[in-house]
Amino acid sequence: MINRELIRIKIVQLTYAYYQNGDRNIDNAEKELLFSLSKAYDLYNNLLALIVAVTKEARNQVEVLGMRAAREGKEPPSQKFAYNKFAVQLEENKMLSEFVANQKTRWEDDIEFVRKLLSQIQQSELYKEYLADSSDDYETEREFWRKVYKQDIQENVDLDNLLEDKSLYWNDDKEIVDTFVLKTIKRFDLEKGSKQELLPEYRDEEDRDFARKLFRATILNADSYQHYMSEASHNWDFSRLAYMDVVIMQIAIAEMMTFPNIPVSVTINEYVNLAKLYSTYQSGRYVNGMLDSIARSLNETGKMAKPMGELHTRVHATEKKRATRESSSRRPRIQDENQMLSARHQEKDLAHSVSPEDEEDRIDGLGGEDNQNASVETPPLPTEKEEDQSELNEKE
Question: Which long-range CB contacts under 8 A does 104-110 form with residues at least 24 apart?
Fold first, then answer.
């Protein structure tokens, strides 16, 4: 489930936090990175468990209304939603049941939210059409829940706020995790029953290694990477670059230098999108130009042997959603490491790993070695954290 896109986002957050923290311990920071990734997998399981919690509450509601209808001699309520075939299969799923059994908190602890969500679903036209539809085949039942998730859970401000209160690690994860929940719903097969496999935490050990290697290369080779940035910035005062832009470019260079099987164009596109998301939208143009210049220089000097390819900046679905929210809601936040460590002490419920495939990853292959003997360097703190972006654009 944890794919390269999510790993890159977490490394941007943790690298920024690493340099903001006075006590820079790369081993502790790496553990924090892996822990934050495991929390994303917890969120995936919790969102699946929410479907079960809503179904159970609907069942309780049907039981109460059914008893009332019997006393009053009225027609009993429909049980179709309460015993939706997909939801029942998910409720019986062994992997999800094992996860829920090991959690300290459950959706029953937030029963008022569950009831509010159930009421929201029941008031929708989608729900009314579902009850009116006489078909009850498994595919229809499963597709109904997929539509409900997209309509009432994927874009739910109350849920976003509740999740943020539960874990600061989930602040920026939900948009990506939602896509995996929807994929999981679509993959469910009635014939597999309770043994239906959920998505694994990592597709394979290579993706976990990708996270470790990229983070360590970013920190341990900081001095060299910043030198490349300084050379590419020409007449611009490097110390005045936006701090987040420096962090993002440093990670991008680390990826270009450490993983020979990832095309340069893919790396640049990924970090241009992250610059737009975590710095400013205009930063994307500047980061794009800088990274392209650095990559060409590294190729020309023989420090990197990769074909450049064409640069067609791809916009992530998550970026589109966040851009829509940005004007009326919150931007993604970067927490400092002390906040993360404090939260970690409160969140001991580590995720559990399983294994089929995670087809969401777009890039495969690892390579390169970390410079384990390099000294840990600190990016220069810019004199202005919020620089005049118009000057950057003029420079470009």
Answer: 104/348, 104/349, 105/166, 106/49, 106/53, 107/46, 107/49, 107/50, 107/52, 107/53, 108/53, 110/162
**Alpha-carbon span 258 to 84, nearest angstrom:** 48
Angle at 108 between CA 146 and CA 128, to 5 degrees: 35
Contact 311, 266 (CB under 8 A): no
Instruction: Give me the numbers of helices (H) and strands (E) for the chain, helices first please.
Output: 17, 0
Pairwise CA distance, residues 254 & 224, whole Å: 10
Angle between helices 111-122 and 125-132 (to 10 degrees): 70
Interior angle at CA 339, CA 337 and CA 344, nearest 5: 95
How many other CB atoms are there within 10 angstroms of residue 152's CB atom?
19
- Residue 354 pLDDT greater than 70, yes or no: no
- Please, are residues 49 and 177 in contact by the beta-carbon 8 Å criterion? no
> How many Å apart are CA 210 and CA 216, to the nearest integer?
10
pTM: 0.79
Per-residue pLDDT reduced to its tens digit, 152-209: 999 999 999 999 999 988 878 999 999 999 999 999 999 999 999 999 999 888 999 9
As a whole number of angstroms, the distance between CA 217 and CA 212 comes to 9
Residue by residue, DSSP assigns 157-188 as: HHHHHHHHHH-GGGTTTHHHHHHHHHHHHHH-
How far is CA 154 from each of CA 47, 145, 146, rounded to the nearest angstrom? 10, 12, 10
Helix (H, G, I), strand (E, B) or coil at 228: helix
- Tokens representing 298 are 């590294």
- As a whole number of angstroms, the distance between CA 69 and CA 375 comes to 74
In this predicted structure, what is the pLDDT of residue 342? 52
Residue 299 CB-density burial (10 A; 0-12 exposed, 13-18 middle, 19+ buried): middle
Query: How many other C-beta atoms are found inside a 10 Å radius of the C-beta of residue 325?
Result: 16
